[in-house]
Amino acid sequence: MPDRPAAASRPAALLRTASATLADAGVPSPRVDAELLLGHVLGLDRGELRRLALLDAPVPCTGVDGENLSGTTVADRYTRLVERRARREPLQHLTGWAAFRHLELAVGPGVFVPRPETEEVAQVAIDAASAIVADRGDAVVVDLCTGSGAIALAVATEVVGTSVHAVELDAAAHAWAARNVDELSSPSSATRPAVVHLVRGDARTALRELDGTVDVVVSNPPYVPPGAVPHDPEVAGHDPPVALYGLGHDGLEVPRGVTAAAARLLRPGGLYVMEHAEVQAGSARAMATAAGLVDVRTRDDLTGRPRMVVARQPSVERRPGAPGVRRTVTDWDV
Q1: 117-312 domain in CATH 3.40.50.150?
Q2: Which residues contact 139 (CB under 8 A, 6 or more apart)?
Q3: pLDDT, averaged across the chain
Q4: Spatial separation of the C-alpha atoms in residues 75 and 59, rounded to whole Å
Q5: Any long-range contacts for 277-284 (C-beta under 8 Å, 24+ apart)?
Q6: What is the pLDDT of residues 182-197, one digit of tens each?
Q7: Residue 229's pLDDT band (boundaries 50, 70, 90)?
Q8: pTM of the predicted protein model
Q9: In what order do the strands lie in the sheet with 214-219?
Q10: What are phi and psi of 144, to 5 degrees?
């Protein structure tokens, strides 16, 4: 079978056609997605791919796994991926990974794809854990409803001295988290090897052995109200419902259980941060207050939307001679 015309095997031509196809399908970032998909086929980063496109150079003959590829094979594989993306399959499902802070996480059907908005939730937990480590030398962090393990692994790789525990109930999501924990705990990992204690269990009842000892509890639980179907086809059609819908009339039944668990787990002065929808800010604050937490406030995400509740376990001051209770740091900059 003769090879395709040379122009069809060049990145510039492939990217032009793919970008137009994705734009016609309503994909929000057609050029970026076109570049990432072709880079995935060829095993190239976007910078090198753009260089080849500017030079109008032919595609490399080696694919992502070192496989020798013809121009026809590249074009065929790429076209199939572009067609799937045009049907609004998530980009991350097609490439098999999602970026989260400095990490590349394995994702696919059955697990919630981590979002850039959640990176700021992780930042609050990281800042608090870092302050505790600087003050005391170590910190205990719990990530409830961990999904792919994104927040837990970000904390574990960015804050030396943390003991990180992550809880996930759903079997499919837990499997993805286990894969990411295994890959990022390997000595060959590109990042500092992560140590995350992953537990499959109900976030509301798990880790009772840690009650009253945890410095930071962080969570991105399901919180979408019933009937509030997400607008993006990638979310509505591909993110697992168990990771989206928080149950109850307001979508906060699961978050209420998570918040109660946080109040149980946190030591005096410990920090709680939880992601929520921007319309749930007031309800989330009320929920944290009802659980007995104090210093309750709402924090914005990077787009300026009120997307997380931050609160503390009440502090306990040590009375002279009182055993077993120590004064806790309460002025971390969060």
Answers
A1: yes
A2: 129, 132, 133, 159, 161, 162, 163, 215, 216
A3: 86
A4: 9
A5: 277/223, 277/224, 277/225, 277/251, 277/307, 278/305, 278/306, 278/307, 280/223, 280/250, 280/251, 280/252, 281/306, 281/309, 283/250, 283/252, 284/252, 284/255, 284/309
A6: 999 877 666 666 789 9
A7: low
A8: 0.85
A9: 196-200, 162-168, 139-144, 214-219, 266-275, 306-312, 294-300
A10: -95, 140
Give ranges for CATH 3.40.50.150 in the chain.
Answer: 117-312
128 vs 331: CA distance, rounded Å:
10
pLDDT digits (tens, 9 = 90+) for 262-292: 999 999 999 999 999 999 999 999 999 999 9
pLDDT value for 73: 79
